[in-house]
Write a structure and sequence with these properties.
It is built from 8 helices and 17 strands. With about 325 residues, the protein is an alpha+beta fold. It folds into 2 domains: about 100 residues, Lipocalin; about 160 residues, no CATH class. The radius of gyration is 24 Å and the shape is globular.
């Protein structure tokens, strides 16, 4: 009996306990943390934003992302920021759900510095503005968004839900129900330079300033001219219109609203909070497209999409002024 207990029952019991401690216990702890974080969100002004984040912002007319590693001690926040070969150090204070900080390049030969003001939206999102100096003289202002790593992969789409879609569906680029994307003047020029092709090769100019991407062989039954081998061949330089989809801007009674096509996109979430979170990622895009909103609304660009069902969200002024709460 003792042999049975010692060599059979005890190992089995130990294995079961190990399984519980190794798998079930971490799940319970994670759920407790989520509950606690939700409680913090509603009842107190201070909590820890330490962790790895990805930024979204606009530099000139380029949409960029940085890796941001935040460390917090009390209200004091420090961070290392890395973009390509550029590295910065950030210092600031997180108080009353607002992060106010300054950062500076680690390269003493270059005057690259700036400041950010971000408000807490939820545990995965901080949203606000950034002002910075680059190349010793150019001063930029841009909407600036921080999204927690794991919640967003910028190399796989504009929104979180794109992460589960890229490579599985081709509706954005190869769908009969969607019009080819609009190209702003600077986008057409950038693609022309990178592809070493004239703009006429890949786009038609339809209004005073704007172009529309051509389809393969200029055949209306085909997909985008740059949709090759089941993927976008100019992904890093894709137009704002591509980055924006399945969201769009429409005019109602003289005011532009954010809408989204909920039937034609395979991945768009049904959660209202997730949809609102996407709107924060749109803020840098809106900054760049705003001067052309009226021209973008020309029906010549949306002969197919006008037939698609859409949901109306809120005026773009709420996005521009960072007044979307989750």
């Amino acid at each position: 009996m003792k042999i049975l207990e010692r060599y059979i029952l005890l190992p089995i019991i130990s294995s079961i306990l190990g399984l519980i401690l190794g798998i079930v216990f971490p799940i319970i702890i994670k759920k407790i943390k989520i509950i606690y974080r939700k409680k913090i969100d509603k009842n107190v002004d201070e909590f820890d934003i330490s962790g790895n984040w990805t930024s979204i912002f606009l530099e000139e007319k380029d949409f960029l992302n940085e890796s941001v590693k935040i460390t917090q001690l009390g209200r004091k926040v420090t961070a290392s920021i890395i973009f390509d070969k550029r590295e910065y150090t950030l210092e600031g204070e997180f108080k009353n759900q607002i992060l106010l900080a300054k950062y500076e390049s680690n390269n003493p030969k270059k005057d690259e510095r700036g400041s950010i003001v971000l408000r807490y939206i939820n545990e995965n999102l901080l949203s606000g503005y950034c002002t910075f100096v680059f190349n010793n003289k150019q001063v930029y202002n841009s909407p600036y968004v921080l999204v927690a790593d794991g919640a967003y992969k910028p190399n796989m789409g504009t929104y979180q839900f794109c992460n589960s879609c890229v490579g599985k569906f081709d509706c954005c680029c190869n769908c009969e129900g969607i019009d080819m994307p609009i190209l702003l003047p600077f986008e057409a020029k950038k693609i022309s330079i990178s592809q070493k092709e004239s703009i006429d090769y890949f786009a038609n100019k339809l209004t005073t300033n704007l172009y529309q991407m051509k389809r393969v062989n200029n055949d209306e039954k085909n997909g985008c001219i740059f949709f090759q081998n089941n993927k976008c061949s100019i992904y890093k330089e894709r137009p704002i219109d591509c980055r924006l989809f399945p969201f769009d801007f429409k005019e109602f009674d003289g005011e532009y609203w954010l809408i989204y096509y909920d039937k034609i996109c395979n991945a768009i979430p049904t959660s209202e909070d997730e949809i609102k979170m996407c709107s924060h990622c749109l803020r840098p895009l809106l900054d760049a497209v705003s001067p052309y909103l009226s021209e973008c609304s020309d029906p010549i660009f949306s002969k197919r999409l006008k037939e698609q069902h859409y949901n109306k969200l809120f005026p773009i002024s709420m996005i521009r002024d960072d007044r979307i709460d989750i």
